[in-house]
Amino acid sequence: MSDGSLFPQTPASAPASDLNAAQPAPVRAELLVWMSGLLRDEYGERPLIPRRAPMHELISTILSQRTTHADEEAAYQELCLLGDWDEIIAAPVEAVAHAIRRSNYPESKAPRIQATLSAIKAERGGYDLDFLAELPVADALKWLTNLPGVGVKTASLVLLFNFARPVFPVDTHVHRVTTRVGVIPRMGEQAAHRALLGLLPPDAPHLYELHVNLLRHGQKICHWTAPKCPACILKDRCDAHAIYGNRVPSFGK
Ligand code: SF4
Known about the structure:
The chain has helices at about 25-45, 55-65, 70-80, 85-90, 95-100, 105-125, 135-145, 150-165, 170-180, 190-195, 205-220, 240-245. By secondary structure, the protein is mostly helical. It has 2 domains: about 15-45 and about 170-245, Helix-hairpin-Helix base-excision DNA repair enzymes (C-terminal) (Endonuclease Iii, domain 2, Orthogonal Bundle), CATH 1.10.1670; about 55-165, Hypothetical protein, domain 2 (Endonuclease III, domain 1), CATH 1.10.340. The radius of gyration is 20 Å and the shape is globular. Iron/sulfur cluster binds near residues 180 and 238.
């Protein structure tokens, strides 16, 4: 029977009360601090420097869903060949879908991108998102997530990466690693944004570094299937490792 913690089975070697996910918030917040330090030692400091303009970040993040970075970049570059944002709105949706064909699901992303651009133009009269730097964080998140096709992850990435606002984007890697370690109980990516942010200090450079390093750890070690636990710097305090040892099942199972 489920105890409400990370995994439904309570192993003999790790009673539910000993699992991170069953611990109170301050204990899990301390676990995040510990993880942050180890990940920084392993992957280095990551200064928060905007990598591209806000509109570029916004549209690229939509393109990046279930797509490799190389394909996302190729799709973005070809999209820009259609013209400026006004011309992309006016282009036939089939032309937009063709331009972004290196991204997965181009037929559904093309109309979403056009709808997002149209909504920004209608509300702001142009495509300058700098006003987001001045809005309270909750209002900025709300404004972005009200755009068609923009979820909390995309909105958080734009606000953190471009405007150094203290939010914490939870992508598939961040979600998987923090759930397995037991920083948060099992929950969806959407809910994980709020749960993790509640455990973290409102410090944008710290949030950025932790996001990027967790992503790196998920790509390099804590894979979706067959994670490399013997090589993992987090294994001493990882719930999944406490339960399954070096045979942690695929995430979601
Ligand atoms: S010990 Fe294994 S499951 Fe836990 S974080 Fe490391 S790689 Fe992932």
